[in-house]
Specification:
The protein is an alpha+beta fold. It is built from two helices and four strands; from the N terminus they run ββββαα. The N and C termini lie far apart (44 Å).
């Protein structure tokens, strides 16, 4: 049974209609930004590794375009849900102290 490991998730996609495909002439490119993450029970714990990007023509699926990779990589931020496991684990650790304080306050 696999309880932890790494995965890869698409965190953002951009449609760019300013670049003309060299293969089919269509001016529609799809950029997809991926982030590798560490998971525990398939809950993202924290991002690991670097972001990666791929792009393809929407019409012919040709993956020639490398021009705007760095631009879209630089404007994409790692989403907060990548830290879901770390936040839940932190809440699990501090919850006895919070509950203890509440019980002491009410008593
Ligand atoms: Zn194309």
């Amino acid at each position: 049974m696999i309880i932890f490991g790494t995965g890869r998730m698409r965190i953002k996609k951009y449609d760019d209609y300013t670049i003309v495909c060299e293969n089919c002439g269509e001016s529609a490119q799809l950029f997809s930004v991926y982030q590798q993450y560490f998971h525990v029970f398939f809950i993202p714990f924290f991002p690991s590794g670097v972001k990666s990007i791929s792009c393809a023509c929407i019409k012919c699926n040709d993956m020639f375009n490398q021009k705007r990779h760095s631009h879209y990589l630089s404007i994409t931020r790692t989403p907060l849900y990548m830290y879901t496991g770390a936040v839940l684990f932190s809440l699990l650790i501090i919850s006895p102290f919070i509950i203890g304080n509440i019980v002491r306050y009410l008593a």
